[in-house]
Amino acid sequence: MKKYLLLWPLLALAAPVAAQHTEIQARAGVGLSRFGGPDAQSTSFINYTDFPGASYTNSPYGSRWGVGVALGGRAERVSARNGLLAFDLGYEWLQSRTNITALSGAIPIYSSYVGSYSADGSTALQTHNLTGFLGFGHRFGAGKLNVDVLAGPEVAYVFNFREKGSGSFDYNGSATWSTDVDHRAFNRFDARLRADATVWYQRLGFNASYSHGLLNYQGGLVGGSRQVYARVLRLGLAYRLR
Questions:
Q1: pLDDT (0 to 100) of residue 111
Q2: Which of 76, 161, 190, 215 could be joined to 86 by an S-S link, Cβ 3.0–4.6 Å?
Q3: Residue 147: is it exposed, middle or buried by C-beta count within 10 angstroms (0-12/13-18/19+)?
Q4: Is residue 38 helix, strand or coil?
């Protein structure tokens, strides 16, 4: 009898540990990105030349949302009281957009006159991102649905800046312009704050998250102090692998 009495406290201590478990999740969806801050612009102009690959957008850090791709995998620890600790690794191909309203340049290239012309079209600043997110939160239950809510720091390695755009401008009736150049920005890390929510039905979930960048993408600009910060919204599906 004494042995059974000693067993009950041990079982009481072991029960919360047994109730904890780790889930492995995968996610895929769209990544919407833009730049915020006082120097992020919704419109800009093209510095144009006839020489191939030399035209560029004056301010490509656009404040308009562009559509990209977001992929990721997550390990999530669920405690006995539905507390959550998650680590998420992701890859994202993102692009912000800037509308073009004017073009400046010497046309043709050997002309000494630099003119300004009305223009249309848009430019996208494309980046590749590797992200790591450490999230803390809670799992809420509502019938057959569970909702995971997380928040925490995110670190991103942002690389392969490339500017691509096209449109037309008013020159002798109509002419076209295009840009396709590696951007002047250097490879960099970005620190962000991220909020993340997933609605689960059995193994399938709908995931939404928002990342608010804290580091200035033009902080290394010599002779200037422009301020532009990343803003990223992700929408997609998630799946519990186990």
A1: 66
A2: 76
A3: middle
A4: coil
Q: What is the phi-psi region of residue 172: left when phi exceeds 0, alpha when psi lies from -120 to 50, beta otherwise?
A: left
Predicted TM-score (pTM) of this structure: 0.86
Give the list of residues 6+ apart from residue 218 with CB closer than 8 angstroms, or none: 39, 61, 185, 224, 226, 227, 228
Which residue, 122, 124, 120, is CA-closest to 175? 120
Tokens linked to 79: 């405690």
Nearest CA to 156 out of 76, 201, 94 is that of 94
Q: Fill in the amino acid letter for 102.
A: A
Tokens of 42: 């919704």
Bridge partners (DSSP) of residue 188 are 158
- Per-residue CA distances from 138 to 14, 21, 82, 225 (Å): 22, 14, 6, 40
